[in-house]
Design brief:
Rossmann fold, binds adenosine-5'-triphosphate, 8 helices
Length: about 220
């Protein structure tokens, strides 16, 4: 089943970022986007995730075609109930403790807090702590747990493990990928971490304003694991 497709997408600010992008995400699939800093990975994720209208092209999400032609309210509905957005800034509510941050997400999405997930992420013991008392890596894991507890169909992750040591990063991404498999969801992840990219089904490289399929790497990782 197709979760997302992008057709002939392009974006520019004062200068061209990328053009001619075509991409399809199917249920159960994990896609990585790599590329040097400033190449436009975050811009692509913003374009695909309802956050930023591209300069041209079409994005379809589930049964919604050409999402940027929808009303703001409809876009919000997709974002709230179908998407999980894990971006570089964590968007945790400071001044609230961990449990309250999770409860806010639960109320918005009508999903219970997933204690098992918090155990997996080794942050279950932080429920009573204030956000400011968590380490950077704990905040990152909390924001990922919060997104997964919404039970999204499509996850967009922008450097989701940037604050984590490689062992913890690997463990957290295994949990996220397990979520994708068991819920038949899909994920598109921008990362500099080739180890994480190689855990995906497909790797694309953003270079010279184009997204290049880099299937060799993904095949290599599949035969190795
Ligand atoms: N809102 C904006 N207005 C103007 N220029 C922007 C804006 N957002 C990003 N850019 C520029 O677009 C280019 C691509 O940025 P983007 O954040 O997509 O890169 P990236 O590949 O995600 O980089 P990194 O790996 O460092 O996160 C950069 O040159 C950046 O300065
Ligand atoms: Mg970025």
């Amino acid at each position: 089943m197709e979760l997302l497709s992008a057709h002939n997408l392009s974006h520019s600010f004062d200068f061209m970022i990328y053009e001619g992008l075509n991409l399809t995400l199917n249920a159960g699939e994990k896609i990585a986007i790599v590329g040097v800093s400033g190449s436009g990975k975050s811009t692509i994720l913003n374009n695909l995730s309802t956050m930023l209208a591209p300069k041209s092209g079409v994005v379809n999400i589930l049964e919604s075609h050409n999402i940027y032609a929808l009303k703001a309210q409809e876009l919000l509905h997709i974002r709230r109930y179908q998407l999980g957005i894990i971006f570089q800034a964590h968007y945790l509510f400071r001044g609230f403790d961990v449990r309250e941050n999770l409860e806010l997400a639960s109320i918005v999405s009508n999903q219970p807090i997933d204690m098992e997930l918090l155990e997996h992420f080794e942050i279950a013991h932080t429920l009573k702590q204030q956000i400011g008392e968590l380490s950077g890596g704990q905040q990152q894991r909390l924001s990922i747990a919060r997104v997964l507890s919404k039970k999204p169909k499509i996850i967009f992750a922008d450097e989701p493990t940037g604050n984590l040591d490689s062992q913890t990063a690997h463990k957290v991404m295994e949990c996220v990928f397990e979520y994708v498999a068991t819920h038949n969801a899909g994920i598109i992840i921008a990362t500099h971490d080739m180890h994480i990219a190689q855990m995906c089904d497909r790797i694309y490289k953003l270079e010279n304003h184009h997204l290049h399929a880099n299937i060799g790497l993904a095949t290599e990782s599949r035969t190795r694991s």
